[in-house]
Design a protein that fits this description.
By secondary structure, the chain is of the alpha/beta class. The chain has helices spanning about 20-25, 50-55, 70-80, 90-100, 120-125, 145-155, 175-185, 220-225, 240-250, 255-265, 270-290, 310-320, 345-360, and strands spanning about 35, 85-90, 110-115, 130-135, 160-165, 190-195, 215-220, 235, 305-310, 325, 325-330, 335-340.
Length: about 375
């Protein structure tokens, strides 16, 4: 039998949060009956009225391969040139485009840990080598930038992935820390993944770093506007990088429906600001409620956060019986942590009651 190229059989797909529909089917649970705290998207849904915009989208023609209307609107909102933008089918597609365009077999890439697993998958798809920089639980998994700088100077990597704020820890690098990494990574492609920047407190403007010719900033409209079912994100980078990514981008990569949703969402003035305020309130409520149960949520600069438990997989299964889903962080190398992203305060109250019922608080050291 014909075999795939070497390395493909060893490739392990990344695990993600969200509903596993086959799992629920086996358990006899309807997906619509699940309260999902495992995904870090806007819990208040897309802007009101978006369905009408989706109904108007043309589905009998190929979509605009350049996502022109959406790209021009992003350009205006971000105050950057349209030539510095590329729209993608979610930020994960863009991660793979960067790897395809800039990484060769045996190139070395630095990836701090724990973090989003698809960075490593993208590297392995092009047979690049991964150097993992671990972070320490004692400092809430905050990245030691001085050590990162040391690794760059020692190994001269071709690429560096920085999730900022980081998934799943919620830690956020300052402008000065990112600039320090960029200053020693002149020969490295630095991928700054800001998928959760919309919900980050005191966020700084990474667009101010566009004079760096080795920086790609990735963002996700999926998270901001609850468009997970459509897949939508964009890259911000110097024109020559965008040009290279376009060469490896599939044609028609963003559907007409997703483009229409993006345009509508960006024109929904004040919607995201309103959601941010409600998410912040729900997060504060949930954190205090967990502390009241004897749990210790880790500090986080964004909407989601880690919580240490005795057995993440066991707790996830127990909560699933209550119709609640949380992110088991075993796949991040953190089997004693779950990740939570707040929903409405009423939903958070239901989660707290379910955690109390499981008795997990009696078993956390």
């Amino acid at each position: 039998m014909l075999q795939p190229r070497p390395g493909i059989e060893k490739l392990v797909p990344a695990r993600h949060g969200g509903i596993d529909y086959l799992e629920l089917k086996k358990l006899g649970i309807l997906p619509e009956n699940i309260l999902d705290f495992s995904v870090s998207t806007n819990p208040f849904g897309p802007p009101p009225g978006i369905q009408e915009a989706l109904n108007r989208a043309s589905v009998d023609c190929y979509p605009d391969s350049e996502s022109t209307e959406l790209r021009l609107l992003l350009s205006s909102k971000l105050n950057i040139s349209p030539e510095n933008l590329l729209v993608g089918s979610g930020s994960t597609e863009l991660i793979r485009l960067v790897a395809t365009a800039y990484l060769s077999p045996d190139d070395l890439v630095i990836i701090p840990q724990p973090t989003y697993a698809d960075y490593e998958v993208a590297c392995h798809l092009v047979d690049a080598q991964v150097l993992k920089q671990p972070t320490r639980e004692a400092v809430n998994f905050r990245l030691n930038v001085a050590k990162t700088v040391g690794l760059i100077r020692k190994h001269h990597p071709k690429g560096i992935f920085l999730c900022n704020p980081n998934n799943p820890t919620g830690q956020y690098l300052s402008r000065e820390e990112v600039k320090e990494i960029l200053s020693v990574a002149k020969d490295s492609m630095v991928i700054l993944d800001e998928a959760y920047i919309a919900f980050t407190e005191s966020a700084w403007a990474s667009t101010e770093l566009m004079d760096c010719d080795n920086l790609v900033v990735l963002r996700s409209m999926t998270k901001d506007y609850a468009l997970a079912g459509l897949r939508l994100g964009y890259a911000i980078a110097p024109e020559q990088i965008i040009s290279a990514l376009k060469r490896v981008k599939p044609p028609w990569n963003v559907s007409s429906v997703a483009q229409a949703a993006g345009v509508f969402a960006l024109n929904a003035d004040d919607y995201l600001d309103t959601c941010r305020m409600k998410i912040k309130q729900a997060k504060e409520f949930l954190v205090e409620g967990l502390k009241g149960l004897g749990l210790s949520p880790l500090p986080s600069h964004t909407n989601f956060f880690l919580v240490k438990v005795s057995d993440a997989a066991k707790l996830r299964q127990a909560l699933l019986k209550h119709g609640i889903m949380v992110r088991d962080c075993t796949s991040f190398g953190l089997p004693n942590y779950i990740r939570l992203a707040p929903r409405t305060i009423a939903d958070c109250q239901r989660l707290l009651s379910a955690i109390r019922d499981t008795g997990v608080c009696r078993h956390v050291s």
